[in-house]
Amino acid sequence: MPQWLCNQLMRAYLKKDRRQIKMLNDCWFFYQRQSPAGTNGTVPRSQ
After folding, report:
1. Separation of alpha carbons 29 and 24, rounded Å
2. Overall domain count for the chain
C-alpha cells in the first residue's frame, strides 16, 4: 500500500471519519485491481 494512502487512512481512523475511511478503502481496492499482477502497489524509495 502506498505510504500516502497509509497516512490518509491513519488520519481518517484517528478522526473516526467513516466517509473518508470508506472512500479510501474503495480507492485501495480500485488501485489493486488496476495494478499489474505481481506488484504490490508500492513505489520503491531511494535511500
Report:
1. 9
2. 1
Domain span including residue 23: 3-33
Rounded Cα distance between 36 and 9, Å, is 23
For the stretch 15-36, pLDDT in tens is: 999 999 999 999 999 988 887 6
> Does residue 46 belong to any structural domain of this protein?
no
In the structure grid, which three cell numbers stand for residue 18, read together?
467513516
Here the cell at position 9 is 487512512
Contact 31, 41 (CB under 8 A): yes
Domain membership of residue 39 (yes or no) is no
**Does residue 41 contact residue 32 with C-beta atoms inside 8 Å?**
yes
Residue 21 makes CB contacts below 8 A (sequence gap 6+) with 9, 12, 13
